[in-house]
Amino acid sequence: MANLGKPIKPRKQTFTRTNGTSTSVSLEDAFWDALTEIASEEGISRLTLTRRIDRDRVHSNLTSAIRVSVVERFIAKYRSATGADADRQQKAGPGEGGLSRYCRHYFSG
After folding, report:
1. Percent of the chain clearing pLDDT 70 (strictly above)
2. How far is CA 80 from CA 56, 66, 84, 94, 98, in A?
3. Distances (CA, A) of 51 to 1, 46, 74, 82, 93
4. What are the angstrom distances between the C-alpha of 90 and each of 42, 79, 84, 104?
5. How far apart are CA 85 and CA 16, in angstroms?
6. CA dihedral 76, 80, 84, 89 (to 10 degrees)
7. Residue ranges of the alpha helices (H) in the chain?
8. What is the chain's Cα-based Rg?
9. pTM of the entire predicted model
10. Is pLDDT of 94 > 60?
11. How far is it, in rounded angstroms, from Cα 26 to Cα 22?
12. What is 50-80 written as a DSSP string?
């Protein structure tokens, strides 16, 4: 992961979408590092993961969709590792709570 002590300055990268158009994404190093880690865990390239997020996003801009995807992934990993999912469900009741519910509501239109 990125060194959290260094200045936060987004780094821009350009890539070609599967439909042939080009787009640029500016993300902080921590998000680029996280995307690389997630892609490695899934056995795919960071470009393939970025294209999947681009393809699956709903109404949000790509940079936001990437950030939300990374945060949700690490929240899920944390909950899985700590057993926090069971505690969260008991406190929140049925359905999703917290960031996941907010993100699905906000980005679904």
Report:
1. 69
2. 24, 21, 7, 18, 16
3. 22, 9, 19, 30, 34
4. 30, 13, 10, 21
5. 37
6. 70
7. 29-42, 46-56, 62-82, 84-92, 98-107
8. 15
9. 0.67
10. no
11. 14
12. HHHHHHH--SS-HHHHHHHHHHHHHHHHHHH
Residue with tokens 């519910």: 101
Most confident among 9-23, 47-61, 81-95 (mean pLDDT):
47-61
Structure tokens at 91: 């406190």
The token pair that represents 15 in the structure block: 């890539």
Bridge partner list, 15? 23
The amino acid present at 10, given as its one-letter code, is P
Q: What is the pLDDT of residues 11-51, one digit of tens each?
A: 787 776 767 788 889 999 899 999 999 999 999 999 999 99
How far are the Cα atoms of 16, 25, 54, 81, 100 from residue 22, in angstroms, in the given order?
A: 4, 10, 12, 38, 29
Position of tokens 């993100």? 103
- State whether the Cα torsion 52-54-56-60 is positive or negative: positive
DSSP 13: E
